[in-house]
Write a structure and sequence with these properties.
This protein is mainly beta and about 190 residues long. It has helices at about 30-35, 165-170, and strands at about 1-5, 10-15, 20, 25, 45-50, 60-65, 70-80, 80-85, 100-105, 110-115, 115-125, 130-135, 145. The strands form 3 sheets. Strands 1-2-10-7-12-5 form a 6-stranded antiparallel sheet, with no helix packed on it. The protein has a 5-stranded antiparallel sheet with strand order 9-8-11-6-13, with no helix packed on it. Strand 1 and strand 2 form a beta hairpin.
């Protein structure tokens, strides 16, 4: 298992080691021991699984406010997605910056996003399944989103006419959001 740094501090691509032969393949998608060895000590408490039937489904940009903010470990187990992380920590050197990573059943990469980041993805094939771990339980009271097309963030989504839920269509712009993430410096 390998941890790859990204342009956003504390957001990592995780590449599992895949063992394959004529029968197929095997991989560990998560190991507390291996994550600790890589300097990641997150304790996950809930697994989530979504399915999107069409290419062009956009889910995001989602997060939970403090004190229920979530660290996420995301992977695509069927199909292909472009997965996006946006830094929403006021005062961060990368505030409002974002990265996009292709996750697919073929490349088996995962994206690790700590608390303080919004998350979204767009499907690049039909019949996509995404699974992710979180370190805090879902809290409807703290559930938030910001507009996927907020110009102050400027995510370059690869689909012009995404398929969106009502929730995502009516999400506020970042300037109108009550996001409560504050950058805690290099030690957090």
């Amino acid at each position: 298992m390998k941890k790859i740094e990204t342009e956003l501090k504390d957001v990592f691509i995780i590449e599992p080691t895949v063992f394959g032969d004529a029968r197929g393949w095997f991989m560990e998608t998560y190991s507390a021991i291996k994550f600790n060895e890589m300097g990641i000590d997150t304790v996950f408490v809930q697994d989530n699984h979504s399915m999107s039937t069409k290419k062009g489904v956009l889910r995001g940009l989602h997060f939970q406010n403090q004190p229920m903010a979530q660290t996420k470990l995301v992977r695509c187990t069927k199909g292909i997605i472009i997965d996006v992380a946006v830094d929403l920590r006021v005062g961060s050197p990368t505030y409002k910056k974002w990265i996009a990573v292709e996750l697919s059943e073929e490349n088996k990469k995962q994206l690790y996003l700590p608390q303080g980041f919004a998350h979204g993805f767009i499907t690049m094939s039909d019949d996509v399944e995404v699974q992710y771990k979180v370190d805090k339980f879902y809290s409807k009271e703290h559930d938030r989103s910001v507009r996927f097309d907020d110009a102050t963030i400027g995510v370059d989504w690869p689909v012009d006419q995404p398929i969106l839920s009502e929730k995502d269509l009516s999400a506020p712009l970042l300037k109108d959001s009550d996001v409560n993430f504050i950058y805690q410096g290099e030690n957090k």
